[in-house]
Amino acid sequence: MSNLEALLLGVVQGLTEFLPISSSGHLILVPWLQNYTFLQENEAFNKTFDVALHAGTLVAAVAYFRVEVVMLLRGFWEALRQRAIKTQEQRLAVTIAIGTIPAVIAGGLGSSFIDEHLGEPWMIAIQLIIFAALLGYADRMPERRNLDDANLRDGWIVGLAQVLALAPGTSRSGITITAGRWLGLDRDAAARFSFLLLIPAVAGATLYKAASAAHEGLPSGVAGPMVVGTIAAAVSGYWAISFLLRLLRTTSYRPFVLYRYAVGVAVLLIIATGLRPATF
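The structure corresponding to this sequence follows.
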């Protein structure tokens, strides 16, 4: 892997992790379009590189929401210590914690099935289209509530929706934003809830994958590309968060819905015309 390839994949990860267009799907489609098979042929490094990219996006989210992260950690600790939820800060912290549980359980139990049976380009194309339609529908719902109104029920529903994002092409941010908008959260609140929910989910997944990949050997000469990819993911991820939250002040999620439609249809056409195979 060259530094340029690592830079490209790092930028793709950073942008698509936070924009509702599927990071896992794009990290499969970009090498597929390029006929780039290094990651596929080096499975051990592929897992480690995936950990590095997710660590980069985790750094981006924590850096952007550093004030909120401290507030939520304090609120969660106080709720545990008091064995009661007494403030809005504590309620939001527990809501985020509850929303993390379903994806952690599903990811832990179904990781092997996901790796072996999901993530083919034709599947990703269909997922992009289907969940674009759901996001477009949910985004037409009335904006009735802000982030301070999020409750424990919201945490369960958005958390269950997040399980669907284990399939590449769905988009973790996309499906959680869709669920948030369906529940009546305004566009900004749905995005912030999604990004805050990402932090414990990605932190847990990163630690789990790091532990499983720690004993694997790595190809020679990949330390530099891993550093480049991680930094690229962190920088582009921070920009993506800032960009989306600014954009939502003046517009809807429609640009991302149209983008998903376009990419999904384009991938299906590429497969139908024989330019690239339906599987990686």
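Residues 3-272 form one domain.
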